[in-house]
Amino acid sequence: MSILQRTTLAKALNAGLRRAMENDDKVVLMGEDIGRLGGVFRITDGLQKDFGEDRVMDSPLAESGIVGTAVGLALRGYKPVVEIQFDGFVYPAYDQIVSQVAKMHFRSGGAIKLPMVIRIPFGGGIGAVEHHSESPEAQFAHTPGLKVVACSNPVDAYWMIQQAIAHPDPVVFFEPKRQYHGEKADIDTAATPAPLFTSRVARTGTDATLVAYGPTVKTALAAAEAAAQEGRSLEVVDLRSLSPLDLDPVLDSVRRTGRCVVVHEAHVNLGMGAEVAARVTESCFYSLEAPVLRVGGWDTPYPPARVEEQFLPDLDRLLDAVDRSFAW
User: Fold this and answer.
1) 256-268: average pLDDT
2) Residues tagged active-site
């Protein structure tokens, strides 16, 4: 047994990338400042020194070029992992992702695989401006041909990045940047991880179901802890995979609790919560004691850093939604 002790999410991603590169010399990394600097969040720290500039490549400041080059590498048998420095920087590459990356397998009638990973730090809470704190995950989950996942803790980060790299189809990999250097966990590197495209019950409960992913899993767990002090038992489900969605644990939970609240940092209108709410309502209509409620950012562009805490869903807003569910 090998244990990575007290590992942050950032260090877990670094360790996962390192292991993937050790196991397969076709894995290459590309991105802005990821080489000598190790990335703005230091996720790739030390990897260029150990694997060389041919496998950990600093790119120009051109996201479309980064992703386009990765498409060519994947077509030639490599497994490129590209880093988009911040969530809002992905839009120059959006055409490449939805027009080329997502369609190549279907366009070729299944003859061409495109094994590549697009890493995107996402979400707010770090005191940054717009283009540095956004949550664009629904735009990619809505695109057929893309797999979309979001880790929420160091253990999942370590295993999910390796599983995404090993997957034969393109994966958009969202990382909650405000959790990068937060809570630590021990990681058993000899363990058998859960399959990549599955959700998990992060906390069991009996009275209501909270559904979250990425940075809001921590918020949901804090809300469940606070609710327990008032005698309410809330179950928390971490989606982990946004496309495909694994809703079986969510549906099983809602059939027991009768109530469901979905939370994400992205604005509520046409967000991931809408899809989850629709599917839960379709499958659990006769079990529901109240409508499925959604908690998210406001329907505005991301605000200045000094007021972002009023924009982001927090413990109080989540508990208010739980109260409204029970009051129905």
Assistant:
1) 97
2) 132
